[in-house]
């Protein structure tokens, strides 16, 4: 019995060492398993992060979102453009949209200038631009209605197009309707700034020149066309800003759509 106790006493350290070592192995295995899980999770997270980075950090854009973003860009561009154009000298001192003497009436201009009417020609050109500036004050709702009614099927093709792709699309789809709706606005503006007062002496003088064919260009049509053309140019400039300058993206949908390009 005593021998058994002695043997047991001798085995105790060995048994303790065995179980301790086994426990350490199990603990290390648990640590390694945990590390593997962490690494796998980290790898999965990295893949997700990479996927998000490649898609702009967000879920992929839908065509509906792109269309919404394009409409918003045109709305912002229209509001900014009409505000700029309707200021004093918004057309007259902006070379991009300045309305000159009607090109088809260039012969009239040259003739009356040679007769000493340079000042009258300059005053008339100013009146053309003043009419456009006056019309621009009430142009925004007409454009915004056109944008709202405009059908866009494939927003991505416009988004990935040129810097003025949305403006060109608007112009192609709505020019005819805009001309009809904008003409009365121009007519009222012509009357308000009294374009006729500056035009009448010029055309009267010209038509009295012996041998010339009498002329009387349609100023209403001319100013309407040039005023609309000028607004489209300004809107195109605003669209380019939104596409290229993050600070011009003044709403969440603009940031999402144009920030993902």
Q: Beta-sheet strand percentage? A: under 5%
Biggest sheet features: none
Quick one: how many beta strands?
0
Structural class: mainly alpha
Number of domains: 2
Average pLDDT score = 84
What's this, in brief?
With 261 residues, the protein is mainly alpha-helical.
Protein architecture, described:
75% of the residues lie in helices and 0% in strands. By secondary structure, it is mainly α. It has 2 domains: 1-54; 63-259, no CATH class. α2 (63-85) packs across α9 and α4 (118-136) runs antiparallel to α8 (195-207). It is elongated and about 75 Å long. Residues 1-8, 10-19 and 46-56 have low confidence and may be disordered.
Helices, strands, pairings?
Blueprint: H1 2-54, H2 63-85, H3 106-114, H4 118-136, H5 140-149, H6 155-159, H7 165-193, H8 195-207, H9 219-244, H10 252-259
Helix pairs in contact: 2-5, 2-9, 2-10, 3-8, 4-7, 4-8, 4-9, 5-7, 7-9
Task: Tag the structure with descriptive keywords.
elongated, single chain, 261 residues, 10 helices, mainly alpha, disordered N terminus
């Amino acid at each position: 019995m005593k021998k058994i106790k002695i043997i047991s006493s001798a085995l105790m350290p060995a048994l303790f060492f065995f179980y301790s070592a086994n426990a350490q192995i199990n603990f290390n295995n648990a640590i390694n398993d945990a590390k593997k899980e962490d690494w796998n999770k980290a790898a999965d997270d990295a893949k997700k992060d990479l996927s998000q980075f490649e898609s702009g950090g967000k879920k992929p854009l839908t065509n509906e979102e792109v269309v919404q973003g394009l409409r918003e860009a045109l709305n912002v561009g229209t509001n900014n453009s009409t505000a700029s154009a309707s200021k004093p000298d918004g057309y007259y001192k902006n070379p991009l949209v300045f309305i000159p003497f009607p090109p088809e009436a260039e012969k009239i201009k040259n003739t009356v200038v040679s007769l000493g009417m340079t000042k009258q020609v300059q005053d008339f050109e100013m009146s053309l631009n003043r009419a456009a500036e006056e019309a621009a004050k009430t142009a925004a709702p007409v454009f915004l209605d056109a944008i709202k009614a405009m059908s866009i099927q494939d927003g991505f093709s416009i988004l990935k197009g040129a810097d003025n792709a949305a403006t060109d699309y608007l112009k192609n789809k709505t020019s005819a309707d805009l001309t009809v709706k904008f003409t009365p606005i121009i007519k009222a503006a012509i009357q308000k700034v009294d374009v006729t007062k500056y035009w009448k002496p010029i055309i009267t003088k010209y038509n009295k020149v012996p041998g010339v064919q009498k002329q009387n260009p349609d100023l209403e049509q001319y100013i309407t066309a040039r005023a609309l053309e000028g607004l489209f140019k300004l809107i195109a400039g605003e669209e380019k800003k939104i596409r290229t300058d993050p600070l011009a993206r003044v709403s969440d949908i603009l940031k999402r759509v144009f920030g993902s390009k």
